[in-house]
Amino acid sequence: MPNNIVMTITQRSAYTLLALLLAACGNGAPQEDRRGGIDTGKIHRWKMVTTWPANFPVFQEAPEMFAKNIRVMSNGRLDITVFAGGELVPALQVFDAVSQGAVEMGHGSAYYWAGKVPAAQFFSTVPFGMEQKGVEAWLYHGGGLELWNELYEPFNVIALPVGNSGVQMGGWFNKKIETIDDLKGLRMRIPGLGGKVLDRAGGNPILMSGGELYTALERGTIDATEWVGPLHDLRLGLNRAATYYYYPGWHEPGAELELLINRARWDSLPADLQQIVKQAAAATGAWTFSAMEYHNSRALKELSGKKNVQVLPFPQDVLQALRSVTRQTLESEAEKDPEFKRVYESYLAFQDSYQPWHRLTSKALETE
Amino acid sequence: MPNNIVMTITQRSAYTLLALLLAACGNGAPQEDRRGGIDTGKIHRWKMVTTWPANFPVFQEAPEMFAKNIRVMSNGRLDITVFAGGELVPALQVFDAVSQGAVEMGHGSAYYWAGKVPAAQFFSTVPFGMEQKGVEAWLYHGGGLELWNELYEPFNVIALPVGNSGVQMGGWFNKKIETIDDLKGLRMRIPGLGGKVLDRAGGNPILMSGGELYTALERGTIDATEWVGPLHDLRLGLNRAATYYYYPGWHEPGAELELLINRARWDSLPADLQQIVKQAAAATGAWTFSAMEYHNSRALKELSGKKNVQVLPFPQDVLQALRSVTRQTLESEAEKDPEFKRVYESYLAFQDSYQPWHRLTSKALETE
C-alpha cells in the first residue's frame, strides 16, 4: 500500500494558514428554522482532505461518494468538499490538519501516523494480522473502536472505520523466492512494519514513493516492490517494468481505512447529522471493500494472462519464518511504547480467539 | 438457517385487514414546511415486518437498530416500527405483505420466497456458492443487485442487501461422516437447495421448524440437523440433545439478508429519506456481518470445549461429491425455470472469475 505518497505532497505549510482563514470566515448560512430541538436550517460547510492522489481508484472515489451521499441525506445541510492529497494539505499531514481544526475531516489509513502514534498501525493493518472480517469484528464488537478513539483523544480527533483494502499483494520480485535466505540482501520497497520485518529477516527495505517505482524496477535499483494489489499495481504499470514473480501478501492482510473528524467540529453537529455521518461511513466501507474485491479479482485475471508475470504463493517455510520474525518485531515495538503494547495485547487476544472460527469456515468449501 | 420458522407463525390473515386499516388511516402528520423542494415537515410512519422470532440474536436486533438509526438521521421524519415474525404478519408471508402494501418494509432472506420466485435463492445463498465478500462484490459491482430488483419488479418490491450471516454450519450429526455413502438414508433436517442436494446424494431431507429440533434429535426422530451457526445453535441448545459431530457448512456459505420495500411507498419518499434508507441498509449490513463473525467465533470456542461435541471438517471426497451433486441440482433447477437459469448464469460467471483471487488471498497467510 502506498505509505509515502510523496508524489502528491506539495509544500508543508498551507494548512495552518487555512485554519486561520476558516476561523475568520465562520461557518455556514444563517439559521432558518428549528424543530425538535434541532437547528434544521443551518448549513455546515466542511472540508475533507485525503491521503490519496486525485483519481486514485476506489480509495479517492469513496470519500467523494461519501460526501455526495451525505449532501443528499442531509438535504444540503452538511456540505463536505473533498480534496485529494496535496490539493489543500500534503497527504501525510492529513491527521495534523484534522487535529488542529484546519479542516473538519480526513480520509486515509491509520498506519500513516505511525511516526506520531505507533499503536495506530493496528487500526490499519499489521503483518500476519487479521483480514477485513476479523478486523471489523474486533472494531465493531470486540472493543477495537473504543481503543482507537482513546488513542486519538489527545489529538482531538475522532476515528471511524470507512472500508478496507482487502488482502494486499506481497509484491513483485525479480527472482523466485524459494527459502527465507532468498530475502537476504533483497532491496525491496516496503514501508512500515512490513519493512521492519524484512529488515530483521536480512533484507534491505527501501522507502520510495509510488511515482518512482516503475523506473526503479526497470533500472534494477530495487529487486522487488509491493504497492497495493492487482487493481492499483496494474494501473501503475508495474507488470511492464520487467519479468516478475507476483506473490500474495503477508505484510498487509487488509488495511482498514479511516475517517478522521475534528472533535470540536463534531460536537458542533446536531444529533441527526452526526448519525448521518456515522452511517454513511459504514455504508461507504461496505462499498469500498466490495469494490476492491471486484476490481482486484478482475485485475488479477488480466495480470495472470501476461507472459512475464507468474502468480504464485510464498513457500510454506518462508511464510512460517516471516510469521516468526513478525512476532519478534511486534514484541520489540511493544517494549518501546506502552500504548503499542496495550493495543497489541487487545488485538492479539481477539485474533487468537477468532482464529479457530476463521480457519474452520475459510476451509469449509475447499475441495482441492 | 431457519427456513420455516413455524414456531413464530400465527394465523395467516391479519395483514390484509391491516392493509385496509392503514389505507383508511392515511399516513403521518400534516405538512409543516418545505425547503429545497423537499417536504421536511411530513412524518412518514412505516411498518416493517421480519422473518425472525422476537429476540432472535443479531438478525432481529439488526432491523430494530436500523429503524432507530433512521429515526435519528431523519430527525423523526421517517418513523419505522419493527415487528418480529408472527407479531403482525406470519414470518413466511413477509414478502407478500410488502408486495401488497400491507406494510412498507420487510427484513428476511431471499430464499424464503423460493416457492414463489425460485431464482431469488441466489440473492440469499446457494450450496457451494460465494461467501459474503464474493456475494457483495457481485451485488454491488457485478450487476447482481440490478438482477435482484428486476426479479422483484412484478411484485412491486424493491430489494436492498442488509447484511450476511457468514458461513453457516453444516450441522450436527450423530455419526461421523467418512464417505458420501454415510449420507445415504440419513434423516436430516435441511431445507431448500441443500435439502435437494442431500436428496440427490441418497439422503432423506426433512422439513422441521426450529422449535422441534431439540426433541427430534434427542428422541432420534432425525439423525442430523443444520440450523444457523455456533451462536444460534448454542442458543437453541442443540449441543445438549446428544453426542455430536459438528461440521462446517457447504450448503449455505453465507446467506445475504434482504431489506424489502414496497415500491409505491418508496416512490412517495423524498430523495433525502430514500438515501437515508439506502445508507442505513448498507451500514446495518456491515454491523450484522461483523456481529455474526464476533458471536460465532465466541460460541464456537464454547462448543469446542464440550465433551460431547467434536468439531471437524468434512472429508475432501465427501465435499467433492457434494459439489458435483450440487452442480447437477442447480442445472436441473435451471432447466425448469428460465429466470433461475438467467440468474444462475450471472452468478456462476461471476463466481468463476472471482475464484482465483479468493483462493489466492484466502491462502496468503496460511502457515499450516
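qc> The CA atoms of residues 141 and 147 of chain A lie 12 Å apart.
qc> done
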